[in-house]
């Protein structure tokens, strides 16, 4: 057995200089399209499984509406938010992240929370989760992360060694890991959990003035979770428990509802806030930026055909409307490409023509042909732009607003490297009973890990977040706290 170093290479054999950080304009970003290694990883990753979704394969969906309950036109010109009382039809898809199409609903996993608003200015998708943060903060690490959640290539079994090895080597995951292993890791039903846009977005008003925002969907039904034992029992008896619960609730007229809130941050605060506001592993303090009510989402109609509506539904955080724009969040920047690209591969280049994805607004563009083009394909109308034949043309008033970027084009991490404060704060917010269950869940999940090296490395992260947190996990695993665990954060 040789210890010779093996260089990671691209698919064309060139050595990779940095596989942890994408190339960005400065440490904050945005991401540069010249990072061909990032593009290759994301594009190849989207094509690894056929035909189910690479992630979020198992899901349930429903139709409903969104009603504006607060006037926020001072912050955004988005038409669907233009007046109190206005209703917009929508479709939502809930999902687990890592499991296959036939996996159980009640596994410990984040839940996808994707909402498609059929607005008068085109579709708008908020594609988030039931957690406000994520495991990683740079899209270049996403394929590797999801590989750890999938099956071992030899045994075809789930692999806790890979899961905890990756997390222990990616300390930015600690905040999300703490949420996942807490009571919130297994919602009682899809109706009894919150949803989040997770990323930072930009709202722009009629005067071109912008603010940074984060979305929060708060369940009207209240938060309810399942214990690990109850979830395992249900998984064996009814693996489609969440899907069935949502369908039956709507069918009998018990319509689930969520209130939508936003946090609003002035643009200038992004440069001085104590955490980088574009880092999706961090939350904004509600004391600093309180929740402001926007409206109410109600689900009141079940799909008539699961495949046509739920399985073929496609969502992307890049599906935007005037008044809503993106931020330099590196994870979001990668998703802008990866999600739409996944749909073009999985469903087809014309996925937006399917009834579940088709906008209510009229579509006028020069995209033609492609597999399964089932409308008139533009007929004999003009098929290029610019043209002299009266075809649709650009609307400069809807050009996205500008924001300044600076720095050297390089593959660099965010400037802020504190992965422990917010995870520790979350731990200390829990009751004694909640902490005990958190530790119990972590210990149970880590016991199958073969290497003590991996366990000890992860214990150091827990300890740095809170000494009690790390000590209790170590005790549960029958290990001692490493001496270096108490080093400076």
From TrEMBL:
Q: Output the InterPro entries linked to this UniProt entry.
A: Catalase (IPR018028), Catalase_3 (IPR040333), Catalase_AS (IPR024708), Catalase_clade1/3 (IPR024711), Catalase_core (IPR011614), Catalase_haem_BS (IPR002226), Catalase_immune_responsive (IPR010582), Catalase_sf (IPR020835)
Instruction: Report biased composition (Polar residues) as residue ranges.
Output: 8-25
As its record notes, the protein acts as a catalyst of:
2 H2O2 = O2 + 2 H2O
Region annotated Disordered, chain positions = 1-27, 375-403
Occurrences of domain Catalase core (ranges) = 9-393
Pfam entry (one) = Catalase
Q: Which CDD domains match?
A: catalase_clade_3
> Which SUPFAM superfamilies is this protein grouped with?
Heme-dependent catalase-like
Classification via PROSITE patterns: CATALASE_1, CATALASE_2, CATALASE_3
Q: Name one GO molecular function term.
A: catalase activity
SMART domains, sorted? Catalase
Q: Which UniProt keywords apply?
A: Heme, Hydrogen peroxide, Iron, Metal-binding, Oxidoreductase, Peroxidase
Keyword Heme part of the UniProt annotation? yes
- EC number(s) per UniProt? 1.11.1.6
Recorded family membership = Belongs to the catalase family.
Protein name in UniProt: Catalase
Source organism of this protein record: Heyndrickxia acidicola
Gene name in the database record: katA
